[in-house]
Amino acid sequence: MKLIFSSFLLCVLCVSVVHSQTINREAVVKRHNVKVHKIDSLASLTVGNGNFAFTVDATGMQSFPEAYAKGVPLGTQSAWGWHSFPNTENLNVKDALKTYDLEGRKISYTVQVKEPELGRKTVDYFRVNPHRLQLGNIGLEIKRKDGSLATANDIQQIKQELHVWTGIITSQFTVEGVPVKVTTAAHQQYDAVSFRIESPLLNSNRIAIRMRFPYPNGQFKDVGDNFKSDDRHRSTLTTSKGAALVQRTLDTTNYYVDVNWTSSASIKKTGAHYFVLQPTAKDAFECSFIFSEKKPVTTLTNFFKTKQSSELTWKKFWMSGGAVDFSATKDTRAFELERRVVLSQYLTKVNCASAYPPQETGLTYNSWFGKPHLEMHWWHAVHFAQWGRPELMEKSLDWYFNVAEKAKLIAQRQGFEGVRWQKMTDHNGDEAPSSVGAFLIWQQPHFIYMAEMLYRHNPNSKTLNKYKDLLFATADFMASFPSYNAATKKYNLGKGLIPAQECFDAVSTFNPTYELSYWSWALEVAQQWRIRAGLPREKKWDEIIHNLAPLPQINGVYLAAGNTPDCYEKGSKYLTDHPAVLGAYSTIPAANGLDTVVMKKTYFTVLEKWDWNETWGWDYPLMAMTAARLHMGEEAVNTLLMPVRTNTYLINGHNYQDDRLTIYLPGNGGVLNAVALMCTGADADKGINIGFPKAWNVKWEGLKKMF
């Protein structure tokens, strides 16, 4: 207990010392305003508040969704917006269960069974449903001189800027030589977006605002451009002076869009789900669109209020928590790293700061049908606490209380104790069938990790009492999951799992290095929570901690798993996907007997042999954190900025993966995790800036140490 308190005190002292290096935060943020000068499908910009996001094209609205559909699409999504197609055949997810005989235990998993036909239909339905909704498309309709509608090619002389300090987008362009300016802002307390349109074209009624409502496409990726299926949903318009209300009905899902404007205009329905707001104002026009689950009693905002909300709230955000300034570093790579840091803070605040774990594409468009993946929750949320904003992580961590009963039922069904946290899930905590996801286990310790992060921020009985019971239930599953090997007298993880590196067979895989380390570390943290609560150490947990299988290695290099002695051989399939073996000394300190000399050799083995074309965006921050813990600053920067497609960061700050995943927020979260660790060091480190080359002069303040 004394050692833990000393580490916490050291963390506080380190942060306090560096805090004296006052940073001009506004200057740091503003030098990374995003500027766009052309129609670019990968350069769309987003405003939002964590619970709601609205993504725009070069006009500052969603005028040309078809031009962006294959890039970063023009989405409108909220944390509450979900829909399911009718379950007309009364399918039950139990028909996706398959029982496996694993280490003498019969365990059922919710997987993608292909037969019988009932099972296949069940899988198809529950992977698609529920899915997150694209709530609507709001764009400009601009008439050319001849009366025809302007196209994307008519948008010329583009000068668009995302003002990151205020969260406001200004978009200037011309149509046939006539200037147009649009100011776009999202309210920070309501799910609302507001616009101010300025143009001489208003004088001749050549600018209108169009609302279109899509129907879900039911596919892996939904970019909000399915304007067919008119008969499958309803859009009803009610008007009043200076305002209108659209009620949306999709099967059993209902929501509302409240529209208001501040000067002369008319609104009419021109199609089943198509509405046109026609200003008759001169020179300038302001309007707002508020999305809500329930019918609004009164109009909540207008352009002035929305703009003010954005300016004040974003300034408060940037002045809170941590900041890093790379401007004193001469290395040209420093500016790019600072850009990624600033824009990643913006994007994760917009997309990942609600009361629910986010999907990997946030509130922009659906990937995996809009479902969150709990193994990615660490990458979406932990950086908030590292950057001194723990309340943003706490919001989504508290969701686990809502779904704990379902996690308990999963554990009971499989014959384990405690709660087994879901993988591919939804807001209600239901499992989606997945032949990979059902076997993942590395999401299990995340709850313990995040609760411990909150305790470090607020080491008091209130934090302890709030989370301890659920944390203990998490540890109970972890202690009941390993299987005892009588020959080695050790407990194995598996067989019957897929590690974070997902290219493994579930039935034959056991003892992955990262999971062994994470298991050991998290169980020990759980024991410390028992001690803090005045309870004795749990004997069963200690039995696992003291007798967990050692980390598998050959020739002084850690293996990906105990069943893959050939994992580094040329052409091996185990040289693809996440280099998760390095996670054993990346997000966590040394545990389960980890040897840093062996890990260093493992790091360089991975660096030499890996197929970098088959990786993901968070792999590079993972490696950078390992390099930082090994005090290899040059290596940490090199890996964090490695020139690989999946480590690309677009002009808008998004981490690009491929045509299917044009944005990938775990990469953004990972950058913030890595840079914070590179600045503060871990608990075991005595110095600061341990993750940068010695020549780098990096100033920082307000960051919190990683374990």
Automatic annotation (TrEMBL):
State the superkingdom. Answer: Bacteria
Q: Please give a single GO biological process term from the UniProt record.
A: carbohydrate metabolic process
What SUPFAM superfamilies does the entry give?
A: Six-hairpin glycosidases
Signal peptide (residue range): 1-20
Please list the coiled coil stretches.
none
Under InterPro entries, the record lists:
6-hairpin_glycosidase_sf, 6hp_glycosidase-like_sf
Keywords associated with the record = Signal
Q: What is this protein called?
A: Glycosyl hydrolase family 65
